[in-house]
Amino acid sequence: MIGKENSVKIFGVFDGHGLNGHLVSSFAMGAMAEFLQNVKKSTNIAKLDDDQVQKLIRKCFRFTQDKIKI
């Protein structure tokens, strides 16, 4: 979502399930934030079109999944 100031705002819900679900959801939130901070350093996210944003979100999800599997 592009805000009035031409900035990008991304919202997420991290709802853990099971005995240690809260730990996994917290880890996922941090991993996604890490990925997006790294992207922000090299890409003007506000100038991406919808297709590029969708690809970026998929990459972010895969990055997070890979870190959780370790």
Give structural attributes.
70 residues, mainly alpha
Walkthrough of the structure:
With 70 residues, the chain is an all-alpha fold. It has one domain. Helix content is 60%, strand content 0%. The chain has two helices and no strands. α1 crosses α2. The chain starts with 20 loop residues before the first helix and ends with a helix.
What is the H/E string? HH
Overall SS class: mainly alpha
Helix coverage percent: 55-70%
Number of helices: 2
Secondary structure elements and their pairing?
Elements: H1 21-42, H2 50-69
Short description:
This protein has 70 residues and is mainly α.
